[in-house]
Input
Amino acid sequence: MIEIGKRLDRPIVLVGLMGVGKSTVGRRLARRLGLSFVDSDAAIEDAAGLSPAEVFERYGESDFRDGERRLVARLVDEGNLRVIATGGGAFVDPRTRELLNARAITIWLDAPVEILAERTSRRDTRAQLRNGDPKSTLERLASERRTAYEQAHIHVKSGAGAHKDVVEAILRALDDYLTGEA
Ligand code: S3P
Output
């Protein structure tokens, strides 16, 4: 378990559905590993001057995905050893998934839809959850995206517990993964 940060040679990328805690967990994980942290949604907002929801609503999902693909590629190309939290749909794009699996260690954070529905209901920041029943939308996305998320290198299940426990579970899983690679 010791010195995981020193055994890493590429960025760690968190993938998974909205509300699973990629940003909060990612920030804590980065701190534990002594790495910097970047959130792809926040980077899109910096680059576009619009939030992901605004890009979605003004230009549509396909333009958002194009921008997201370019931005994630740029974050990886910068070559920094860091923790990157991606927006929930980024890893579903085949090109982004291929790039991330080749150049980073990808971690699928996974939680039951009930928990995601509860967490995402606290803030109205996701364009896809603004129309219709958010829980049904999350259920649909969970089933549509499962085969993409399953391709991440590491799968970590998180429940309703504290984010710090998820960070510990990730550190154990990373330790195993790096040991297997060595
Ligand atoms: C999306 C998830 C959002 C954001 C955009 C699209 C998705 O990010 O990128 O609303 O398609 O799952 P979070 O997963 O950080 O909420």
About this structure: The domain at 2-174 is CATH 3.40.50.300 (Rossmann fold). The first helix runs from residue 4 to 7. The chain is about 55% helix and 10% strand. Strands lie at 12-15, 36-39, 82-85, 105-110, 154-157.
